[in-house]
Amino acid sequence: MTRTVPTDDTSAPLPEGQLKRGVLGTGGLVFMVVAAAAPLTVMAGVAPLGLMIGGVGAPLAYLAAGAVLVIFAVAFTRMTKHVSGGGAFYAYIAKGLGSGWGLAAALLALVSYNTLQIGVYGLFAAQTRATLADLFGVTVPWPVIAFIALGLVLVIAWLGIDVGAKVLGVLLVLESAILLLMAIGVFTHGGASGVDGASFTPAAAFTPGMGGVLAFAFAAFMGFESTALYRREARDPERTIPRATYFAVGFMALFYCFIVWSVVIGFGSDKVVGAATENLPGLFFAATETYVGPWAATLMRLLVISSVYASQIAFHNAITRYTHALSEDGVLPAWIGKVHPRFGSPYRASVVQTVLAVVVIGGFAFAGADPVTGLLLWVNTPGVVGVVVLQALTAISCAVYFLRRNKAASTPAALTAAIVSTVLLAGATYVLIDNVALLTNAPTSVNVVLVGIVPVTLLAGWVFAIWLRSRRPETYARVGRGADQEAAA
């Protein structure tokens, strides 16, 4: 018989192999999801490019991407109560499309989340190095900064998901507050030439560059689905996971749209494109300095660093939960999924992920690569494409599950949402790949290789699935179900 784990005594030993149970409520899950998206970094670092290529209609792209993901969430959350494993996307895909697709998705998820997380260390190192040089006149090599960040992420992850949620909560509030302060300052002063709705007109919505802005917009929601990864650690997961998913997507869509619109008003709808073109990296800082003050612009620069660090913690936790779930399923070795007896964290998976990051970052540093144009853009891009492909596969899986495997679990709304989101996410995948050069700033040959990593990874997962089905059929049958399947039996 499984005993209840007390959540108010962190010193009590946990049952062997168990993650902490019931320590994340809706708020904690939302912090994990939104922090992974790094709102301040997405806004200050990427939104100006969206304004430059898409014009004043850029705010609409975030609403459109959010609407697509809300439709997807209707089917995704409806299926949640029927998915017992802790593997998020790959558990859903295995449930609907079978273990073969589940294993292919599992490998793609591991590759995608690792590339997302490891690549962003380049951005963190570059931002921190520039800030230290500007504010304190100190020059630190970017690999040193990246390795220090690796250690700090490992420490927070080791101490448990509840500690991570608290840290992310504080950092997320701070980065959201500085963006909101900028927007309030803009609207309080009436902007550059008054408040107008030029961003929300049909003419703005259908400018030629909006396809590229949509690619950025979908990338801005990376990690929203990871609410399901924390199923074991959530309180009443059948209620908290759907709530957190809807809240996170809705918040990001509305918040992103409002903040980008405020920058349009701040510079004027007739001048913002020119301002973005002339001052791409400093657009948000200039708006903050103008409408709030120099101190707020300086604070924003510091909070960009904490924003990237928060996303690193969130993605690291997501990677280790995928690793832990695959270990439970028997796909990965049992030792890698071991849980810390006191902190309830998959600490060995954390160490393995950190070592992998050290190797990749060390390789780029040894080669003399730039932390942004090399490590960030080239390593990060396959992860962005991979996650959107996983979303599309999960939507297909939901549709198949409701139509063929469990019709009783379906509702008209859930089935319709699954079918519609399949079409929309397939379109989003095409738009992202078609505009991938905007993400990488690399030649076509490089982009073909970076995007090609996704189908090659899926194929490798399928080859492994065929081998596993013939050599270890009992493990193959457990994909996406793991320890929960045994507990149910």
From TrEMBL:
Keyword hit for Transmembrane helix: yes
Subcellular location: Membrane
Primary location class: membrane
Sequence ranges assigned to domain Amino acid permease/ SLC12A in this UniProt record: 29-473
Keywords noted in UniProt: Membrane, Transmembrane, Transmembrane helix
One protein family per Pfam: AA_permease
Transmembrane segments: 29-53, 59-77, 89-113, 140-161, 168-188, 200-224, 245-268, 280-304, 351-369, 375-402, 414-433, 445-468
Membrane topology: Multi-pass membrane protein
Superkingdom of the organism of origin: Bacteria
This protein's name: APC family permease
Organism of origin: Lentzea rhizosphaerae
